[in-house]
Amino acid sequence: MDRNNLIKWLKEPKKMGNKYSLWAVYFSTACGVIEVPPVLTSRWDAERFGIIPVATPRQANLFLITGYVTTKTLKAIIRTYEQMAEPKYTIGFGSCPINGGMYWDSYNTIKHLDKYIPVDGWIAGCMPRPEAIFIGVTKLWGMIDKGLATGYIRYRENYDYYRGNQEKLFGSMEWPPLYTLKEGTNDG
Amino acid sequence: MDKLVGLLKGIFKDTDGESLGKNRLRVTAPRGSVLAVLDYLKASGFYQLKSISCVDWMDENEFELVYHVASMESPLHLMVKTRIARDNATFPTAIPIFKNAGIFEREIHELFGVEFEGNPDLAPLFLENWKEIPPFRKDFNMREYVKETYDSIPSFEEYQWQKEN
Questions:
Q1: For B55-71, what is each residue's pLDDT tens digit?
Q2: Which residues neighbour B87 within 8 Å (Cβ) at sequence distance 6 or greater?
Q3: CATH assignment of B2-127, given 3.30.559.30, 1.10.260.40, 3.30.460.80, 3.40.190.10?
Q4: Residue among A75, A158, A165 whose CB faces B128 most closely
Q5: Shortest Cα distance, chain A CAs vs residue B115, angstroms
Q6: Predicted ipTM?
Q7: Residue A1 confidence (pLDDT)
Q8: Residue A1 contacts by C-beta under 8 Å, 6 or more apart in sequence?
Q9: What CATH number does the domain located at A21-156 have?
Q10: Do A111 and B145 touch (CB under 8 A)?
C-alpha cells in the first residue's frame, strides 16, 4: 500500500476499497479476450492492480467488453450487467464496441455499445496491448476518485432510454425491467 | 480422379466432373441426382461431409449449393455442386446420408432462406429478432438496414439534450 494514500484510506475507505478490488467478470465477447489471459497470468499479473477474474457477475464490479458485440451477445451482456452488484464499472475494450470498428456495416453487430448499456471508459485500438488495460484501469481509478465513474447511476436514472433501445433491438425482452420505467416509454 | 469422374458420368445422367488442380475435383450434378451422388460417394469412401455452402447467383435467379466431401484415407477434396431455383427455394435434406448436414442446412436456411425438406430443426441460429429477408441474399441492402436499426438511435448525449429542451 502506498503510504501517501493513507489519508485517503482513512477519509473514504469505501471508495478506496472499490478502487483496489476491481473484480472482473469472466465474460469474453470476441477476439479481444485473447489479450486477457496474459493480463491475468504471470506475465502482466493483473492482481497487482487488484483485478481478479471471478466466475459470477454477482461477485464482480468490473465488466470488460472485449471486442465486437453481436446482438446475441448483447443479450447476454445486458443480463450479466443487470446482475452485477453496484457499484459496477464497464470498460469497452477495442474499437468495435466504440463505433463498430471493422463491422461498421454489419447486419448483426452492435455499432455503439453505450446506446444499450452505460460505459465508463474506452480503450481504443485493434487490438490494444495488455498494457492498455492497465492504463484504462488506472484511469478508472482516477475517475472513481473524482466521482466520475457513474455509469451505473446513469443506467438507473435513464433506464427508459436504455431499456427502450434494448427493446427496439430485441422486440420483446425475456426478463422484466430491472428498475421501474417512467411514463411515456414504449412497453415493448 | 479421372476414374471417379468416369464412374460418376456413367452412373448418373448430366453429371460432370472437372479437376481444379491437384487433388481437387468439382462435380456438377442436376438437382434430382445430387443426393444420389452423395450417397454413392459415401459408399465409395468419401464418408466425411466437411461443409455445405451456398452461393447466390441473383442475375441467373438461382442458388448454388456446394457439398464438400472428403475422406481421411485419400487426399482428394470433392465439391458437389448443384443449382436450384431462387424463388421459394427448397431442397431435400442430406441428413439421411450425412448426419452432420443438419447444422449446415440450418445455417443456410437462416442466411439464404433455402427451405430444407425433412430437416427437423430449422430454428434461427445466429440472428435475433430478424424481420427482413435473409441477410446473405444479394438483394438485401445492408447499409440501409444498419442505418435503420443502429444508426437511427440517438446517442445518450443527444437523448439528454432532447430531454432538456
A1: 999 999 999 999 999 98
A2: B61
A3: 3.30.460.80
A4: A75
A5: 22
A6: 0.80
A7: 59
A8: A9
A9: 3.40.50.12280
A10: no
